[in-house]
Write a structure and sequence with these properties.
single chain, about 200 residues
Length: about 200
């Protein structure tokens, strides 16, 4: 008989499917993380209202030089960063959609394989039930035939016993009639001998 991979116990097979699905998912996630686009942009800091102080080492004095940041330059920097962050958001959205599509496809394939496994198991169980039902029907027919044969044999034996009993009764009655006729003709009673 051909051994099928699905002949394992139901619990063992379900655990094997779950483990393989988990392994495939983790491998795909690891492979996907290698190709992730890192969208780490420059850190956006708000423009400071007070000028920054930076120590100078020219005079070796502890005097501080005042440096002012031009507001128009910070505005340009913020616009560039916001455009970059929008681009990064678009990339993140696109990556998210691709990953979700992959997950849904993988989940759909897993569900279809589980449904196929379930249908195959149900079909095999139904076939096994039909085989057993057919075997039970055959066994019932054999038992019924055996019962009928036994009844016929009992009837035949009982009929033969009845005929033998009837013949024995007739024989014994004929002996009694002969003896009674002999007694009538001779006038004496039957002789019984108690000899040993």
């Amino acid at each position: 008989m051909k051994r099928n991979i699905y002949d394992l116990g139901d619990g063992e097979f379900a655990a094997a499917i779950a483990a393989s699905a988990f392994a495939i998912c983790s491998i795909e996630e690891n492979a996907g993380s290698q190709y992730q686009i890192k969208t780490r942009g420059p850190v956006i800091r708000p423009a400071e209202t007070a000028p920054m102080r930076r120590p100078t080492t020219v005079n070796r004095e502890n005097s501080a030089e005042i440096v002012t940041i031009n507001p128009s330059a910070s505005d340009k920097m913020q616009k560039g960063i916001s455009r970059g962050s929008r681009n990064a958001e678009n990339k993140a959205d696109a990556w998210e959609k691709v990953q979700i599509a992959k997950i849904r496809k993988r989940h759909g394939e897993l569900l279809s394989s589980l449904i196929a496994w379930e249908n195959e198991k149900k079909m095999m169980a139904k076939q096994q039930m039909e085989r057993r039902k057919h075997q039970l029907e055959l066994a019932m027919k054999r038992n019924l035939q055996h019962y009928k044969n036994k009844l016929a044999r009992i009837d035949h034996i009982a009929k033969e016993a009845r005929t033998q009993a009837e013949e024995k009764r007739r024989y014994e009655e004929s002996i009694v009639r002969e003896k009674s006729n002999k007694i009538r003709s001779t006038g004496t009673g039957p002789v019984t001998c108690f000899c040993f």
